[in-house]
Amino acid sequence: MERLGNGGGEALALEGGERGGENGVRAAELAEQLAGHARAQAGSESQRQPAYVIVGVHREGNQGRAYAGAGGSVKGSGRSITTHGRPHFYERRECGGTYTRQEFELVDVPFLIVNRRVLGTAGVGCLLGGLLALVFRPSLYPPYVEGIAYVDIANLDFRGIPSYYAGRVLHPFAVRLVAAVFHLPIDARAFLWVSIAVLIIFFSSLGAYYGLEFSSAPEMWLLLAVTITVVDAYRNYYWHDLFHAALCALFFLALRANWWTSLPIVLLLYVTRESTIVLVVALVAVTAFRRQWPFCLSALAVGLAGMGLESALVAHAVPNKHGISMVLLDVLKIPFNFALNICGLEFWTNTNAATTLAPKWIASVPTWLHLGNIRQVGFSGFFWELPARTLLLLSTAFGILPLIVIRAARRGWGRLLLRRLDLSTACVYGTLMFVLAPLQGTIPSRYVLYGWPVFWIFGVATLEAAYRGWRRRIEIVALSACAAWIPAVVGLVTGPVPRGPESLSDVSRSGLLISLALVVVIYICGWRLAEPDKPPVE
């Protein structure tokens, strides 16, 4: 069936009661009947009140039905149409003149319309992921830093695995499974093949979500995710960051389709990376705010189970070099990394002397603090380029989408939390992970990817609702791509300073200044471009 509603997706809400409709009407005939009815109705009204057709699918929990209608008096704003207290997805077809708000009558239509769009957008995502994997295919290189521990876990060799990494077993186990199926050694090639598959799964899952969510050319929004942030995660294939992002995309796809099917994925995310606790906190906070207590308590129970599973995996691992608990270590990392990545101040301890510069002064730690093996602390100096790199990272990792989210947040966080559950959770979780990116470790360019839901789910939904014109959408996507690829392009000119064997996002000091100047120009243009369209005149 030809897709209904090539017009932009304006947020609507139904006011008043709705009338039930017919069952079993074929989609094509239904569209014609409703469009004809709408045109006839529009002819009897003034030309300022043209009619249109609305088509949609029930969102919360049950996606087995779709609805359509036409008529007079729909008011309000928000992404969903509310029918009998339940939100619905919709499309719109203009039936003459300009858009207006009209009353509509619900009728059942086959779910095939949505399936076709979902499969098509997921297929485009699959092709896009495969193309990126081919164009940016990395070389084969030996593991480094924590990648060495993940290779050992894949080989089921848990001797000497630090407690930092012992709970992150799902990604190495997936590599082991692929190696066993295809009779490969557990080496760089097996990790690379898993990274290729995960990149394709990430884009196809995101495409399926966009196909369910957006009515007009959802494939275009996939281009916003073609960033150096994703490419770097793909090329550094010993690490699990892209693997976690793909699982997270499946989580939000499941959360959108049926809340309860998303909970098992939380357990999988927990044994991929322990920072999944932030997702659980966001999910529990949003559902508690909305007073959806059964799902809130279930999410809390799954979160506690995930923590217990992770604790069991870490229990027999080698204690961290600092000799303190993981909870205390996570707490102390925040001020340490804030000073390093935000303020440019590098501090030294006797336990991390091998990975930091020699200190300019040293002080002994009072014994009453009980900081395990940390006996001395010191100060290594101020480095201006560290906060500058953090600023460049946060302003380019997701293009100009931070501007879109900031504009949405200015309308009030309370309103954001009352949106559909998957959008609200993506907003809260993604924002927390984006803010925590420079506080989690000494390589914030790795951790910034974990904030993707607030931009590629919530931010894109905001874009779809705020900008109806195709020209404006194309301009935003193009400008966002320019911002996202600034570090890579400048690095090609000025010479990169690679973080790892296959990183494309790092630049030299001169490249850093040039990149920041270009980002300022792009953000000024983006702020003017990001002004939402005015609502249609009634």
Description of the structure:
This protein is α+β, with helices and mostly antiparallel strands and 538 residues long. The chain folds into two domains: 27-110, no CATH class; 117-316 and 388-529, no CATH class. 53% of the residues lie in helices and 7% in strands. The chain is built from 20 helices and nine strands. The strands form three sheets. It has a four-stranded antiparallel sheet. Strands 7-9-8 form a three-stranded antiparallel sheet. Strands 3-4 form a two-stranded antiparallel sheet. Strand 3 (81-83) and strand 4 form a beta hairpin. The protein is globular and about 65 Å long. The two termini are 30 Å apart. Mean pLDDT is 79; it is low at 1-113.
What topology, given as strand order, has the largest sheet? 5-1-2-6
Give the tally of structural domains: 2
Number of strands: 9
Residue-averaged pLDDT: 79
Helix percentage range: 40-55%
* N to C succession of SSEs: HEEEEEEHHHHHHHHHHEEEHHHHHHHHH
Total of helices: 20
Going by helix content, strand content and strand pairing, the class is: alpha+beta
So what's the overall shape?
A: globular
The biggest sheet, with number of strands, parallel, antiparallel or mixed sense and barrel status, is: 4 strands, antiparallel
First-to-last CA distance: 30 Å
What oligomeric state do these chains adopt?
Answer: single chain
* Strand residues, percent: 5-15%
Radius of gyration using CA atoms only: 25 Å
Provide the low-confidence segments as ranges: 1-113
